[in-house]
Structures are given as C-alpha cells and as structure tokens.
Recover the amino acids of this structure.
C-alpha cells in the first residue's frame, strides 16, 4: 500500500529531514512510526499526503507514484488517506456534525449520503449525541474522536496519524488506539507516528524507528 | 450539481455571517471606491454635456464698419445667407443695439442720456447649422466671413470655446487616469480586506485542502462571497451616488453657475447604473481571486 525507495528530503542548505529511506507497508497493516522529536516522522507523513515532495527517491501510494504528483491530482490522492493530528485541526466555528460532514462535502458527496455517513461515523466514535455541539465545548479526547470520525467517514485506504495522543491522558489514548484498531480491522492501513512506547507495549504491532531521518529499526510484533 | 450550487451559496452566506465586521469592511470599501469613481465620471460627463450645450447655442456676431443702406442691407443679408453653415441671419441696427444696451443697464439706463445710437456699431447675428456648431465648423464660417469688406470685427467666443474644450479634454484625461488609479486602489484595498478574511480563515483553507477538496471547491465559495459583497457594494455605491446627486451636487450646481442655460444635470443612465453594480461584482471576484492565489495551496 505504501512503498518508499531511497527517499530523501532536504530543506535548503544542509538540513536533511529524511535520509535515503526505503520501506514497504502492506495493505491492511498497522504500523507504529517512532523516534525522538526531529527524527523525521512528521516529514515522512507530510510526504505521504503530498504536503511535501521528496528531494530524491520514489514514493508509491496504492500503486501510484506520487513523487512528482501534479497539484491538481493531490486532492484525489488525499481522498484515499485519512489524517489525524495532535492538534485535531477542527473548525472551531462549526458544529461536530459540520466538521465531519466537511470531509464528505469537500469530495462532492450528495446531501443524503453525507448525513447518513456522518451519523454512522460519529456513532462509531461514540459521539452521535453531540452532533450540534461546537468542538470547544468538548473534552480533548472527544475532539480527537471527532477528528478520527472525520478521517474515517470517507472510508480511506490509509489512515495517517501524527502524535494523535500527544495532548491526551493515557486512558483516552487507549480509547483512541481502539478506534484505530477497529478501522484497521475493517481493512484500513494504519501508520501511527508516536513517541509513546507504552502504546506498542499494550497493542503490539510492527514498529518503524527513525533517527535523524534514517530508518534504524523495523521490528515485527512478538507473537505471544 | 444542484447540491453543489446549494452548498456553495450557503457556504458563502455563512462565511459572511461568521465574519460580519470584515464583510462589512469589504462592502463599504467597494461602495466608497465605486461611488468615488462614478462621481468623477458624472462630473466629466456633465462638463462635456455643458460644453456641447454651449457649443449648440453659439452664434457668430459680425460687427459692421458702418450701418448699411436699405439696398445694401438686402444684398448683404442675401450674401451672408449664402455662406455654407449659416442657418439664420438677423440684422441688429444701431438703434436696436442701443435699445438692448439700455435694457441690459436697466435702472442705470439713465447713464446713456445724451448718447446717440451712432456710437454703437450695427451688426449681423449669424445662427449656425447644427453641423457647424463646433470648433471646425465655426472656423470655416469665420474664414468665409473675413472676405466681407463691410465686416469690421467678428465675435464668436472662439478663444473661450477653445479654452473650454481643452479644459474638458484635460478633465477627460484626468478622469481616465484618476479613475483608473482609483479603481486600481479599490482593487488593492478590496483584495487586502479579503486577504484579512482569508487570513482569519487560514485553518479552514488548510483543513479543506487536507480532506481532499479541489482548488475549485475551495475557491468557489470565496469567489461567490466576493461577488455577493461586490454586488452589495455596487448597490450601496449607487445609493450613495443618488443621495449625493439629489441633495448635494444638483442643488448646489443648479443654484450656482448652470441655471442661466437651463441645463439639466445628467445622472447615470440605467445601463450605466447596471455597469456600476456589475463593476462591484467584478471587483469582488477579482479581489477574491488575487488573494486566494496567495492563500490556497495544496
């Protein structure tokens, strides 16, 4: 589903965020991307949803080479990818319903389809009773669940999460990871960037470790 | 398709409701800019109209060296009538001239006591055919008149007309330059005001791009919003213009220098009013487009 071949990302001068990265993530896999701050996790994710272009190397998403993707093709790539961020990236002036519906409206879905899917997605994250609330009226955990509902409502092939639990306590974090696991069980490939090792201890999965932009570890989960 | 149109319109209206201050600022800026340009346009149009009107009323006065005898008068009148461009010939005898002078002096006519009409020259007032009521037409009539030995002096306000025409021409030039500059300034201000609204909504633009919205999908509601604001700005400028025309411009000008010629001040024609409002729409869309280019990146 995700393939990288000798991918390097440089930002002017000598600053190299990702160095010569080669890896494959198969369809339906759940993978942790770990590493200290500045290891290149966010840059790698940004390249996967084409917010950045690699300086060198090739990136394939669902068989499509996106290394030199044209800007008018980017929206269609992003429709295959759900994204979850540490700061939730919700529209504070809009209701919970509108925030989730936004993703479907942006893809030009019909109104009746939008309302049905939004309700379903919010039910899956347990927030169907908060439809008309504004994000700021909700807790951090609830806001992140809205963001996850927004990412999953479009039935993405891939779910990218960048430190989704960075602002949340552990109990809420585990609830969030549960939601990712459910999406993964339905066939969505999940790539979760985190520096929280407790996640892997509780929900062991394949772990990719980055250090100063290089891939320094690729651990498969230990079978119990 | 209908769903999309409905979404775009609702989105544009909601955006405007969400940022009432910025929205009002945009509308007012456009209204003031358009009203200023339109006011200038009205001034230029009215001055040109006035020049035209004055040219229409123009006549040539040929003063005679000495009053002609009855016989000569008939011949002279005939000859003057034959000049191409001359439509009417009116003879003003020395007595007639004196009567007019007295009438003009009114209460001070007593000053003329003891003065005989010999003092004033007899003259012909020549009305011109409409085709000749312009600078070139007058010049051609004058050229022919200069061949008449009986004619001592010619008065036709040529210098004054030339000056007025060059003033009108300068006004037109200044109008075009200043109008262009004002429109450019308006576009700049509008685009900056819209930039402010976009800056306030940069999160929304970023999130739209992240969830897979196409450029067109992101831009259309903003362009529509610019168009709606432009429409409102255009209508408001028309309102400003009408109010200031009725209560300020026409009252002050009519009571001042235009009354003698019974000149009706011109306002924008219905077509020009539509153009003014549509200019607002175009200004709004252009302002949005130029700002969006900087803010929306995938």
């Amino acid at each position: 589903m995700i393939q990288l071949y000798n991918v390097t990302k440089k930002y002017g001068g000598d600053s190299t965020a990702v160095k010569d990265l080669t890896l494959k993530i198969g369809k339906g896999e759940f993978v942790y991307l770990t590493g200290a701050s500045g290891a290149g996790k966010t840059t790698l994710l940004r390249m996967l949803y084409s917010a950045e272009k690699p300086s060198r190397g090739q990136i394939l998403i669902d068989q499509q080479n996106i290394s030199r993707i044209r800007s008018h093709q980017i929206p269609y790539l992003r429709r295959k990818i759900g994204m979850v961020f540490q700061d939730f990236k919700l529209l504070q002036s809009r209701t919970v319903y509108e925030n989730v519906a936004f993703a479907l409206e942006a893809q030009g879905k019909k109104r009746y389809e939008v309302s049905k899917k939004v309700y379903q997605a919010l039910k899956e994250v347990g927030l169907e009773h908060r439809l008309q609330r504004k994000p700021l009226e909700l807790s951090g955990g609830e806001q992140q669940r809205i963001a996850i509902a927004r990412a999953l409502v479009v039935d993405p092939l891939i779910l990218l999460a960048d430190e989704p639990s960075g602002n949340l306590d552990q109990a809420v974090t585990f609830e969030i990871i549960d939601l990712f696991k459910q999406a993964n069980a339905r066939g969505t490939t999940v790539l979760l960037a985190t520096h929280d090792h407790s996640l892997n201890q509780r929900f062991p999965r394949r772990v990719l470790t980055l250090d100063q932009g290089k891939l320094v570890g690729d651990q498969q989960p230990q079978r119990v | 398709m209908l769903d999309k149109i409905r979404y775009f319109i609702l989105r544009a209206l909601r955006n405007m409701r969400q940022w009432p201050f910025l929205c009002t600022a945009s509308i007012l800026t456009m209204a003031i800019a358009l009203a200023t340009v339109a006011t200038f346009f009205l001034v230029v149009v009215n001055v040109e109209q006035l020049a035209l009107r004055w040219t229409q009323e123009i006549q040539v006065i040929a003063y005679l060296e000495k009053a002609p005898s009855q016989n000569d008068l008939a011949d002279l009148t005939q000859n003057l009538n034959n000049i191409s461009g001359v439509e009417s010939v009116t003879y003003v005898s020395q007595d007639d001239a004196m009567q007019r002078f007295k009438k003009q002096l009114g209460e001070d006519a007593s000053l003329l006591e003891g003065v005989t009409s010999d003092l004033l020259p007899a003259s012909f007032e020549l009305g011109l055919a409409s085709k000749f009521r312009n600078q070139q037409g007058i010049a051609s009539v004058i050229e022919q008149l200069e061949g008449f030995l009986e004619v001592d002096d010619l008065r036709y306000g040529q210098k004054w007309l030339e000056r007025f025409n060059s003033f009108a021409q300068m006004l037109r030039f200044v109008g075009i330059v200043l109008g262009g500059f004002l429109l450019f300034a308006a576009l700049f201000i509008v685009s900056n005001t819209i930039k402010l609204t976009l800056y306030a909504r940069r999160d929304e633009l970023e999130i739209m791009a992240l969830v897979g919205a196409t450029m067109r999908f992101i831009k259309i509601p903003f362009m529509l919003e610019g168009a709606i604001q432009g429409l409102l700005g255009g209508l408001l400028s028309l309102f400003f213009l009408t109010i200031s025309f009725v209560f300020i411009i026409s009252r002050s000008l009519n009571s001042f220098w235009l009354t003698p010629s019974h000149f009706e001040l011109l306002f924008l024609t219905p077509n020009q009013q539509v153009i003014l409002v549509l200019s607002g729409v175009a200004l709004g869309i252009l302002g949005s487009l130029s700002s969006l280019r900087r803010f929306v990146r995938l």
Q: What stands out?
A: The mean pLDDT of chain A is 89. Residues 170-185 of chain A form the longest helix (16 residues).
